[in-house]
Amino acid sequence: MYLDFYNRLGLGSLLTMALSLVSPRERTLVKHEPALPPSYPLAVRNPYLSAWMPSNQVQTLPYAEPQFWAGQSLTWSVMARVDGQTYSLMSVKNPGDRIRPAVVRSAEYTASHSVFTLTAGSVVFTLDFFSPVSPSNYLRQSLPFSYLTVTVSESLGKEIQVFSGIDGRWAGRPQRTARRFQHANSTAIYSLGVKNAVPYTEHNDMATWGDTIFAARPSRTSKLSFSSGNRGNVHSEFVRSGKLSGHNEAWVPGGIVALSHDLGTVTGSKSVGFAVGYVREAAINYLGKPYTGYYRAAYPTTAEALAHFFDDYTDALLESRVLDTEMATRAAAAAGPKYAHIVTLSARQAYGGIDITIPDDTKDPSDVLAFIKELSSNGNLNTVDVIMPAFPIYYVMDPDYIRLLLEPMMRYLAAGRWRQPYVIHDMGSHYPNAIGHDNQVAEPMPIEECGNLMVLALAYVRATGDTAWVGQYRDLLRPYADYLVDNGVDIALQLSSNDAAGPLANETNLAIKATVGLKAYGALTGETEYSRIADERANLFFHEGLGTDDAQTHFVLQYPDSPDSWKTPYNIFPDVLFDLRTFPDAAHRMSSAFFRTVRAEYGVALDHRQDWAKSDWNMWLAATLDATTRDEFVDDLWAYMTNGKHTWPFSDRYVSTSAKGATPGVPVLCRARPTVGGHFALMALQGPRSLQSAVAKALGETPAATEVLVEMDGDEL
Question: Ranges for the Glutaminase A N-terminal domain (predicted)?
């Protein structure tokens, strides 16, 4: 109401700015369910299709612009025309006096959907942004598209048209963007790509060698129209007649591509849909050979892939509803409703850093490799200490991803191209070039990555029973286990996964990693000598006190002479998860008591030197603690997630304490990292494939998908 009034005075942007200064907790008009996130995932499918809506813009959604994960603003406008009056529903930045803003009523997220409800006059609209999370279905998961479904309800005989459009900023270099259009059967497809693009290149983390896709096809009860060109001209077409002209004006920077559904007279509810995506024919450069999306084995062209994507909507929607319910239910059973809020927000982000690929030349669907980007830091590719913190989500949803993500590195190591005595840190300095480090120069984390590989290999075998995969690399693994034997006590100055904290010698948490890694290798191979050495090391660091203070109240940061120091010993989590019993229960009781004493405004920092925490590692540690301390860790992460002080895609690194003068509860550097898969550590204790099995069982017991179609009023996308 107020925005409508101010917009008529030409002051809508001023009020929008004013509202952005109001604390989200003070805004009572919009209901956020199940909690207030920092940012809502809109289209989050891979490192280059990752669009978000900052939560502080939801109040003014009709004017708000979504953002790429790295912070670049995008246009994704949605308008509705009700009996000739046009309303902006989202991202109509300068609407003019003929377009009224709808009123935002609620915002909700689940594991796979973000849903906004608005009223335009007497009519209710919902915007459902749906990015499937379907890791066991490689075809569905690899499709580089996301759905937007617009549903109109409470319409009593109103004439309804729905419009959506995007701009050239989605392509990464709007000043060099070219537009293409095709009509494939009934589907209208716009493509936006950079002119003279160089393969495998980025600009500000956005891909510049593929094509942004915006597409729609008519439902059984809608007529589709399309247009592109000057933003004002295209908007005016829709405002004037409720449809688009079909003309594609000469493309200039700042233009938009747009699609419109005419639903005619609507009584009750109807839904229409759009698809947004980013396609790369050559998706990954793996050792000089192009790999493409897995989906191209079945659908080699974008038009064919889109047709399948639209056809698959009903099945994908049904699966998503089961997944959303099962994930929330099982998470709440693991550690309460706040924990469920955390993991359901994390799910799309955890898979949103991954591409599932096959060789571009053969399109062989049996030769699958997965690649993950180290978002927000340096863009490394298949970083072992990114796969490591993320693995709990793979463990419960589909542990094959552990193998798929490790395999590119294992092939490289087996070929002898990396000659250092320890495991390589990553498979490439920057995504999407998985070209290794033949110059033998990569960020050195010797103990970290050797220990990680042992744990990840055991996680995969425990979860799948596939001993053959590890068996073929057994001769490769043994020297890395020997490296842990030779270097896991007197640890030279080196980095751990938390490289921002700097290198340390004799870091206790690294020693724990080496110890647990050796026990994992022994369990993996049956070579009991390594398990015996691991038990001796655990005795040294805990019972003999090398890794604790003199009173044995906590693990220290460094040994042997730093009794007042401490660090979160999260590397003990795999010992608990796999029931390796390397460290005794007394060690976990010790940590449970200690970490209550160093808890700050937003939980426990990484170590005594830092004011920042790591959310993934804290959930790892929480999984080793007693229920009371575990719940404190969950409460603190939930408080950070929902405090309204920040608007980035879920940052896994944040200021937890004001003790060093910084503002607590705000993120530090990291956006949208897939390491939030580590938030699933508490669910991992429910067992391997636990969520995967629950979803499969529920789908088997669910009635036919016709129930979904009835709810959608018979309209498919």
Answer: 112-328
Q: Which two tokens stand for residue 221?
A: 């009860």
Q: How far apart are CA 632 and CA 613, in angstroms?
A: 14
Protein fold of 2-320: Beta-galactosidase; Chain A, domain 5 (2.70.98)
Q: 495-542, pLDDT tens digit by residue?
A: 999 999 999 999 999 999 999 999 999 999 999 999 999 999 999 999
- List Cβ neighbours of 336 (8 Å cut-off, separation of 6 or more): 631, 634
pLDDT for 96 equals 86
The pLDDT of residue 2 is above 60: no
Q: pLDDT tens for residues 676-703? A: 999 999 999 999 999 999 999 999 954 4
Q: What are phi and psi of 606, to 5 degrees?
A: -60, -45
Short-list 397, 370, 365, CA closest to 295: 365
Pairing of β 31-33 and β 103-109:
parallel
Selection from 77, 82, 78, 4 nearest residue 242 by Cα: 82
Residue tagged 């647990």 (tokens)? 516
User: What does the pLDDT average to over 332-347?
Assistant: 98
pTM (2 d.p.): 0.94
Q: Are 484 and 520 within 8 A, CB to CB?
A: no
Torsion angle, alpha carbons of 18, 20, 25, 26, to 10: 10
Average pLDDT score over the chain: 93
For residue 444, is it left (φ>0), alpha (ψ between -120 and 50) or beta?
Answer: beta
